[in-house]
Amino acid sequence: MGGDTNDLIVFLIVLGLRLFVPLAIPRFPLPAIIAAMIIDAADQTIFQNYTTLNLDWYQGYDKALDVYYLAIAYIATMRNWTNLHAFGVGRFLWYYRLIGVVLFEALQIRALLFIFPNTFEYFFDFIEGVRTRWNPRRLTKRRVIYAAAFIWIVIKLPQEYWIHIAQMDVTDFVRENIFGVPVDTPWGTIVSDNIPIFIGLILAIAGLVLLLRWVFVHKLPKPDWGWTFDADSHRDTDPAYAQERTLKGTGYQTNEAERFFNNGLIEKIVLLSLTVGIFVQVLPGIHIPTLRLVIGIAIIVILNTLITEFFARSGMSFDTAMRSFLSVAVANLLIVVVYDLIFRRNEESLDIGATIFFLFLFSIIIALFDRYRPIYLQRVKMEESLA
To answer: Mean pLDDT across the stretch 27-37?
Structure first.
């Protein structure tokens, strides 16, 4: 990787932010995912301006971390989204994009990222934005679908085309096509030569802000509660949470959970096969054939489930997030080491750094999925009882 101690410190700080900021998404969805997006957009610039590190290999880790924080966002919808129509649309958008990324990494056809746009991320922001002031249950199925369609067609398709098909840089485009100057012209020079234009732009932005404020105050429905970014601020409005608290630690299981091979197990295998499939394709030092990967994921998920059920039936409860993660991580490390020893076809050993990174992401996703899916199941059960 190269670089001195200061470079390494900067790198570790940025990497730590990219790993741990997304863990706040389940509790503080909107600010946490916006922070994750900003860090994702800024990390390469920070490395270029403040370090001398050779980070040609970092692109693979960057892609894996993008999938990681979006996977946490999807799992957070199981915890927080009381509008099941929104959850269903979000689930479709998430898996649709995930399939597209897997196909892109396998085929390297950039048009696939246009066909499979990342609509889920902005849809997530929309629902969480609504929830800062209103109960999302007020959104009808039609409004949810209209919102997703608007984000997909009006926002994401042009953005994906610009980035992945046209492959144009926004700042270069503005310099050349709007101001008619070379791409290496400093912004200070552009501003000083076009002061009236920038004053007009500032006034236009101020007018837009005032217009949006007027719409927000006078045209939107009356808020259900005061501003909040904490997903737990109004947990009492969702009976699934109250039921979860009542049944916690009593050996409670949903009807689905009582069956070992259930929809949750299948979804977990699909989710992890797709996400890990992307990790394997983009992370250096990890090369696993597709069939072996899927079989390995299925084995790990089933063994994790068996271990969890064994401890649950023995009266042991990993009732905190940290305990859940550590138990899953230790189990996965042992499983991966044994699996590698059994199926290794050459003398190469595991890449330690890549394997630890891989297991961290993998274990976080499993631990959060197992922790929050029961809330979603209880919510579905209650909705069905009220239907």
So the answer is: 95
